[in-house]
Amino acid sequence: MDNPVSVIIPTYNRDHLLERSITSVLATVADQDEVIVVNSGGSDDTAEVIAAFDDSRIRYVKQMDAGVSASRNLGMELSRNNLIAFIDDDDEWHSQKLNVQRQLLAMHPEAVACFTNIWATDSSGVQRPNYLFEWGQPIQDWNQLLGETKTFRPNGFDQDIEYYLGNHYFNQMLDDYVLPSSLLIDRSRFKEQFEWRVGMQRNESWLFTSRVCRQGPVIFVDYDLACHHGDAPNRLTAIPHVETVMSRLYVLENEFGKQQGFLQEHQVEFDRRIARELDTLFRSVMGGGTSNRRESLAAAAHHGGKIALLAKLPEPVLSIGSIGYRGARTVRRMFRGDD
Predict the structure, then answer these.
(1) Which of 52, 89, 169, 242: disulfide with 213, CB 3.0–4.6 Å?
(2) Helices 315-336 and 260-286: crossing angle, nearest 10°?
(3) pLDDT tens for each residue of 169-181
């Protein structure tokens, strides 16, 4: 096969979920593909789960616990192939996922990556199709995001599917549209090589996929080819909302904010996007989302405005202000008749 894929699965103490993920991967990989499972210091029966598959395409490595990004980086370092796919240990693939993406990247050598629509399940197992636009993004038509609709019928498919090809970098500034478990990259087509940022508890995937989109055009397949399961306990991304907002500001400032050519064209939209996060930060801090209000505000004080003014106040004053803010918000809800 001319275009083999390396599949990277980071895992940590989820042997009961990993089996489902690997099973779905093996249903779509080809003979010359490889599957790299990176155990980030877990102490469960992951090794036994993998051994039970008895499949020579699976490579298993274990490292000290350094987080999911470090595991993905090790997987990329060990990968033999330029086509690289990622899947979380609690997610699942459609049996035709790699087949569809592999064909599209072969059809469009200008594209650096391909991502897909997804379906999701909640903790009760209820499935929600066409889930990408429920994943927190502003609702927009894909024609607005990536241009005209294209169709093709993949080998092994009994129907045409829609896909889009275009520059997705601006769209990624608006919000994260790419679930890592739906992504296939061709790193040989990148203008630069980069890794997942280690140490971020949230939005490290937004940073990575935005960098991918900066490398060139991407393909979006409007067909549910990956599943984002909601049955995994103790998710690594389950962190307080203030820290989540701070991580989004980090991505905006350190990725999009450092691309001078991009800013020359989109400065107004970038400033609005930053302002939106700063407003969210203000509401989160003053709404009781953290006990270290001054510290959180000071980290974003360089943007000026009310954030900078509040950051100068001592913590006890901010605490009193937070009580007043929450009280005023409660009164407003009562008058509006909100639950």
Answers:
(1) 169
(2) 80
(3) 999 999 999 999 9
DSSP class of residue 61? E
Q: For CATH 3.90.550.10, list the domain ranges present in the chain.
A: 5-228
Under 8 Å between Cβ of 11 and 46? yes
The CB density around residue 332, as the number of other CB atoms within 10 Å, is: 10
Residues 9, 11, 13: CA angle, nearest 5 degrees: 160
Comparing C-alpha atoms, which of 243, 169, 271, 181 is closest to residue 212?
Answer: 169
Residues 6+ away with beta carbon under 8 Å from 333: none
Please count the residues of the chain. 339
Count of beta carbons in the 10 Å neighbourhood of residue 201: 17
Backbone phi, psi, residue 94, to 5°: -70, 145
Domain spanning 5-228: CATH 3.90.550.10? yes
Q: How many Å apart are CA 46 and CA 12, to the nearest integer?
A: 8
d(CA 324, CA 322) in angstroms, rounded, equals: 5
Closest residue by Cα to residue 245 from 272, 211, 283, 218: 283
Cα R_g (the chain), whole angstroms: 22
Beta bridge partners of 117: 224
Give the global pTM. 0.93
State the sign of the Cα–Cα–Cα–Cα dihedral 128, 131, 135, 137: negative
Q: Where are the alpha helices (DSSP H) in the chain?
A: 15-26, 46-53, 68-78, 97-107, 142-146, 169-174, 204-214, 241-254, 260-286, 293-298, 305-311, 315-336
